[in-house]
Write a structure and sequence with these properties.
Elements (H helix, E strand, L loop, with lengths): L2 H18 L12 E3 L8 E3 L1 H9 L3 H10 L7 E7 L3 E6 L3 H14 L13 E4 L5 H16 L3 E4 L19 H10 L20 H22 L21 H8 L1 H10 L3 H18 L13 H24 L8
Parallel strand pairs: 5-6
Antiparallel strand pairs: 1-2, 2-4, 3-4
Length: about 325
């Protein structure tokens, strides 16, 4: 179940509650669903009960309880919990077939995974600008909006693909400058580019590009061991690992389409950068479960996990491409 599916599921629960007479509210056009925050319960959370409480004339906890009753038996949900003042928290049911389908979907779409038509028919004019950061942001926004089906009208500066020499300190490369410009929210100052030159785990640009290079290396190493990626049951390849180790990476891949759409809607390329960091961090933890260890023979689970790693690399490459940043095979 993707976040978009979960959002529709929550809306269906609201409609059922309204039809049953348990709630007297107008059904909203959408239900916000986002990743549960660190220390929270489950994988996803929604504040829908808090937003409906006042128009319903009920407390948020009452509304959450009404919706929980209509969500507890939904296929694909293992648990629905109510936390705090009335947040609904969701734990998804593990589904090997759904995981394999997700990996197949990513690999079939390639770097276009997450592109869609949600903004089709929308015409977005972007201001013409010569300022280096504004020009880069405008260019990336144009690419983001078009990836979601919008028609974009942009001036000549906004179509540039690179920062021109002499516009910024020449000691920093284009990729570093782009990350410094784009990782900060548009209303914040750009990041200091100097730390982005250091190949260290504290450097988010390095982590993202290194994670991509690791996916390429895993594919090379697997070929040397005589096996190739094949989506399937991720299982437990060696009998000692935890099958749930793949969950954070699978979740990050499922979050990629809504992350791109949200970045386009909010004109916020920094959301893409932050999402790529999440994918990279999940991949760097997961990578150690992909290849056989010692005298282990490659199994079906190894092939499936290699396919998942390849899908993660595809998402990282696609996201970096949207930002106009290179994805090197080796670092």
């Amino acid at each position: 179940m993707t976040p978009a599916d979960l959002s529709l599921t929550v809306l269906r629960a609201v409609r059922r509650a309204v039809d049953d007479g348990a709630l007297r509210v107008d059904v909203p056009p959408r239900a916000k669903v986002e990743r549960a925050r660190p220390g929270g319960v489950g994988e996803y959370a929604s504040n829908i009960a808090l937003t409906l409480a006042r128009p319903a004339g009920r407390t948020a906890l009452d509304v959450a309880g009404i919706l929980e009753e209509r969500l507890r038996d939904v296929a694909g949900l293992r648990a629905v919990d109510i936390t705090g003042p009335g947040f609904l928290n969701f734990t998804l049911r593990a589904d090997a077939d759904a995981d394999a389908d997700l990996v197949r979907e990513v690999l079939a779409a390639g770097t276009s995974y997450g592109h869609g038509t949600e903004l089709a028919g929308t015409v977005v004019p972007l201001a013409d600008t010569a300022a280096p950061r504004d020009a880069v942001v405008t260019e990336v926004l144009a690419r983001l909006l078009r990836s979601q089906g919008a028609d974009v009208e942009v001036g000549r500066y906004g179509e540039r693909l690179h920062v021109r020499p002499g516009e910024c300190d020449p000691s920093f490369g284009s990729d570093v400058l782009r990350w410094a410009f784009l990782r900060a929210a548009p209303h914040d100052r750009p990041l200091d580019p100097a730390p982005l030159l250091v190949p260290h785990e504290r450097n988010p640009l390095f982590r993202v590009r290194y994670a991509y290079s690791r996916t390429r290396r895993l594919l090379v190493n697997a070929r040397q061991l005589g096996f190739s990626p094949e989506p399937g049951d991720l299982g437990d390849p060696g009998g000692s690992g935890d099958p749930n180790e793949a969950a954070p990476l699978l979740g990050a891949l499922r979050d990629h389409p809504p992350a791109l759409l949200a970045a386009a809607r909010h004109r916020a390329p920094d959301r893409v950068a932050r999402h790529l960091e999440a994918v990279a961090d999940a991949l760097l933890v997961f990578q150690h479960t992909v290849l056989p260890l010692g005298d282990e023979k490659p199994s079906a689970a190894h092939r499936s996990r290699l396919a998942l790693a390849e899908a993660a690399g595809t998402v990282l490459a696609g996201g970096l491409s949207v930002l106009g940043i290179s994805a090197p095979d080796r670092i």
